[in-house]
Predict the 3D structure of the following.
Amino acid sequence: MRATGDIQCIPIGSGVSVRAEVKRAHEILEQAGLNATLHPNGTSVEGELEAILDAVRQIHERLHEEGVVRLVSFVKIATRTDKEPSLRGKLF
Amino acid sequence: MRATGDIQCIPIGSGVSVRAEVKRAHEILEQAGLNATLHPNGTSVEGELEAILDAVRQIHERLHEEGVVRLVSFVKIATRTDKEPSLRGKLF
Amino acid sequence: MRATGDIQCIPIGSGVSVRAEVKRAHEILEQAGLNATLHPNGTSVEGELEAILDAVRQIHERLHEEGVVRLVSFVKIATRTDKEPSLRGKLF
Amino acid sequence: MRATGDIQCIPIGSGVSVRAEVKRAHEILEQAGLNATLHPNGTSVEGELEAILDAVRQIHERLHEEGVVRLVSFVKIATRTDKEPSLRGKLF
């Protein structure tokens, strides 16, 4: 099932700058084959629902492997059956 | 990897009352074997990261099968490597 | 105090299309004098913390006056004291 | 206008433990006269919309005064005109 989403990952206890971790999370979303667009408070994504959720898993697993001790993600998932969900369709 | 989370599902266009859909989403989280506690703005969950994310997928798929046309989920996922994450440990 | 934020407003029970309400919410954020940029899952804002929060109040009050029966907002607020917070500074 | 809400505040760069800051945020919500109930991923609140939003402002201002360098809040606000919104009414 197709879905759109929004994913923001915040490392806790990694210092005041979180730029490196935000960049890694965005890279993982792109490598997952999702249509991914960065915005100031997250990354907008479009793709299969399973692929989006699996990318969230990958972000947590990889960032912990790379040394992040604590990680919180804020995820929005949107699906609909009346038409193909798309990021473009959510802008008026 | 163990995780804690918070999941709120909101049907759009199903009418002003969303009680039935909120109840179904909570049931799916319980049936997924997650430690699930309802609160006024979502359900707190504790379990394997993959199981939590898979439960989000199941909620979307099943509620659409049951007739919901549009669905938005707000999900928080928290993981840490310094200790076992638990819902209990997040209360002071 | 300066802040950045992200505001998404969702009417419940207004029908499957929420385009009109999303557009009104975005207009109110712009009229509030905030630097406001629409993205697929909300509007990024930059301005005084009080002005951002007051704009959330205005959205709820005005949309209800205009007939929306039920409204949920998802708001992210970010502040920092080490540098001037800006939307531009949150992109890598 | 009455509202219900959910407020989670996360300090960034304050170390892996955020217990002290979470406790302070919850105290400020209680002192604001809001009906406030802690849960694992935030505090549920019930009160006047203006009072809830003003409490968010107070949390940011006071925690920064007390030394927190960077702070992110995740806020949900719900209002409705068909009945008095209440935290109790949101549980099935």
